[in-house]
Amino acid sequence: MNSKAYMMEELSRLWPELEKSQIEEGLEVPKDKKMGDLAFPCFRLAKTMHKAPNLIAQDLKNKLEGEPIFEKVEVVGPYLNMTVDKTWLAGFVLSQFDEAEKEGKAYGSSDEGNGKTVVLDYSSINVAKPFHIGHLRTTVIGNSLTRIHQFLGYHTFSINYLGDWGTQFGKMVVAYRKWGDEEMVKKDGIRYLVSLYVRFHQEAEKDPSLDDEARAAFTSMEHGDKEALSLWKYFIEISLKDVQKVYRVLDVKFDSYQGESYFWDKTDELIRQLQEKGLLKDSEGAKIVDLSDYNMPPCLILKKDGSTLYATRDIASAMYRKKTFDFYKNLYITGLEQNLHFDQWFRVVDLMGYDWAKDLVHIPYGLITLKDGKLSTRSGNVIWLEDLLNEAIAKTKAIMQEKNPNLENMDKVAEEVGVGAVVFHDLFNNRIKEVTFDWDEVLNFDGETGPYVQYTYARASSVLAKAGWDKTELHESANMACLTDEYSQEVLKLIEAFPGKVKEALSKYEPYVITRYTVALATAYNRFYHENAILSAEDKVREARLKLTDVTTKVLKQGLYLIGVHAPEQM
Ligand code: ARG
User: Fold this and answer.
1) Distance 462 CA to ligand 1 centre (A)
2) How far from chain centre, in Å, is Cα 120?
3) How far apart are CA 211 and CA 206, in angstroms?
4) Can you tell me whether residue 343 is helix, strand or coil?
5) Tens of pLDDT along 216-233?
6) Which tens digits make up the pLDDT trace of 358-384?
7) CA of 163 to the centre of ligand 1 (A)
């Protein structure tokens, strides 16, 4: 419960003559801080109570006499103005934190999602294609949304829906048969596979018969050609093994890698239903669902040769997920260039009469670009995610060697800070906004960055370590009255805001709400730290300030965790 809700309970207990709803609807936050934290206008009550508003206000005021919640209660015309007692607020916020921890629930978590399963489809890489910096966003947004859902009690199921089927695999098979070298695969993994793919395209420009060969190879895969399929499986294996390195440093895990190939031949039921419902139309030999009533181009279901498409497989897999998980929501995190694709097939599911179409959610995000140029696969300007993260780690290590050369576990910390900086930067703005990648900005230890928040966490942790702080609960001897200065109060208000921020992040599917929150809390704590003596303060004051420091570190760590960033104790 937050202090507002608590006050509401108290007021309705102290003012039995009023309905709770009357109090709730009446309470205002005055624009002018001098008027207090809360105002209750009484003129609306005058009619039913047959009394002048200022007299009603006076009556209500009398009933608040001696209540510790308010520092000052004043009648101003028809208003009752109330100022919350800062000492009370400090004790309240910190004990709310303790209560949650005592019950074994992390502060800010909840059980609102209990019994509900949310499927999250993210990262969803393409086999034998580059895992490049463009995949960073889907991966980190998806990971954060997974953690936020879990924190609020949802059961989650994360799917890396592999792009592991389609005509490009015919090309890969042909390329590998012609030029493939197992030693090179062992050495360069996915990068070597991509180079074969590039070579195929170069050679096919000179010799178009290669394309026919590739088409034939893919058809043979569809007919179960063992040799071609075993090559294809090999490509998947290599790709998955290679990307694990990136998932490990990002600390991202999936429950399933079931991708497109699983569904290519499991669309009969879908086709039957579309036919039965009169939704399937012929169009130059292909089968489509007409969406002109919805101002969209038709959704292609089957090609002329009867093979399935991206949308067909997505619909089949959504039906499968509904059957398997009975999901509460099924979330798809992709670039916004796929908006139309999702709009189209979500509409098809709706036209099929499935009410769960409303639970399919596309969560789009804007492009990521480099400060010095757009990223494009074709021009060969691919930036592999692995390289980018390694560079972040190396740059961070160089900074640390300068700032704190004696740091223990330098490599581990550099990894957590370097990677954390990249993730944090990616999740700093709302999803739709484009991200421009600029090293100076990402790794700035003083800006609104991951390293800044991590550094604040490490600093606060070292205060606790120096103090030998080992308490969990607020001690009675702590002097809450020393937490009434504006800096302490700002930290307290932010701590109190944390549970609401987590809920807001989930309801908007926007991790940035938490990212920005951690910056605000870190900034407030740093001010508090500069303005107040902690270790050298007298016992009771020291106790209270250490407690505030302790709670801040825990909330910062939790916030960082929810966006997928580690919080090293030292840096
Ligand atoms: N593999 C696709 C791509 O890289 C993303 C897949 C997203 N998920 C889905 N169910 N369509 O563009």
Assistant:
1) 44
2) 11
3) 11
4) helix
5) 999 999 999 999 999 999
6) 999 999 999 888 776 655 444 456 788
7) 7
